[in-house]
Amino acid sequence: MLPRLHEHFSLREFNSFGVEARARWFCRVREAAELAAIAADPRFEGLPRLVLGGGSNLLLTRDFDGLVIRVEVPGLRELDQAGDAWRIEVGAGENWHATVERLLAMERPGLENLALIPGSCGAAPIQNIGAYGLELAERFDSLLAWDFELGQTVTLDAAACDFGYRDSTFKRELAGRCVILSITLSLPKRWQPVTGYTEVAQELKARGVATPHARAIFDAVVAIRRRKLPDPAAIGNAGSFFKNPIVSREQHRSLIAHHPSLVGYPLPGGRVKLAAAWLIDAAGLKGVTRGRAGVYEKQALVLVNRGGAAGSEILALAREVQDKVAEKFGIALEPEPVIV
Length: 340
Ligand SMILES: Cc1cc2nc3c(=O)[nH]c(=O)nc-3n(C[C@H](O)[C@H](O)[C@H](O)COP(=O)(O)OP(=O)(O)OC[C@H]3O[C@@H](n4cnc5c(N)ncnc54)[C@H](O)[C@@H]3O)c2cc1C
What we know:
The chain is of the alpha+beta class. Helix content is 24%, strand content 27%. The chain has a five-stranded antiparallel β-sheet. The chain is globular, with a radius of gyration of 21 Å. Flavin-adenine dinucleotide binds at residues 16, 50-58, 71, 92, 117-120, 122-124, 126-127, 129-131, 178-180, 229, 232, 237-239, 338.
């Protein structure tokens, strides 16, 4: 059945930057049959589509002359007890952080490092969400999606999703084609803490936790994030606006020669992931304000809506950041959110 359709619908409440933009059409979807009905409706043939979860990784720079599909598929269930991992299927519309917390309460740990990441479970595979030493890919079994091209649901495993750093096939080969309906997580029964990330280790130490359990890691991650990231409910933002750039060993060597305090993390194979926040700060942009958009004072990787900003103002600031970092360091910063 076709879901209820809204015309000229404001998306202000549906994006964490809190910018105004209108959708020509808007609907909420809870099951595959509604997507089949959309696919069969001639009004939407050839019309651009935008799939929306929590809108926390999105910058809307204009009205959207197409159909916005907000995914609200509910549910959480454990699939089986066999094997060495718990397999848990979660509806794409479920809130990510609430799911992490709920699973902890069910004694199904494994996602605690990814606590407090805003947004929906269905969006988690899109950029292979990651934080504090863990990525979704490490806890992922498969997903169920509606494929508009095939006109049917498909199941994709981790290999088919082709996860990378803040990347997956949904940003490349399958871009714009699939609506994720549910994800199945794979949580190892022999849980091991992930505490290699310095900030997490320091926070646990400061809290006097010598042998961390999952709840302690969850609490530590929540505390770190609350300290350094703005709450979108108070200050519009989409978290990190740029990916951390990855450079070759040689490029890193030559950068370090000129900028000895440059922050980078070695990767297997000799490449180095640079802290984009350091580059932005060193380019003199931390805390700046341009019109109603700004670079967050406490974390230069985060662009913020200082109140009433248009998406185009935030985009102009993002371009200024890219230009200045390119000029000073010869490095191209790539945006992390989807820009529409
Ligand atoms: C304060 C803050 C902190 C953040 N910290 C992190 C972090 O630590 N690590 C991290 O990885 N990210 C982080 N993010 C980014 C964001 O929370 C994640 O990318 C999250 O997964 C986005 O979920 P969403 O439901 O809001 O997606 P949306 O913003 O609604 O959508 C993002 C993209 O996914 C697509 N999409 C959404 N749902 C579906 C679906 N069901 N099927 C198909 N496509 C879909 C959209 O079309 C869009 O391309 C942060 C954001 C904020 C505001």
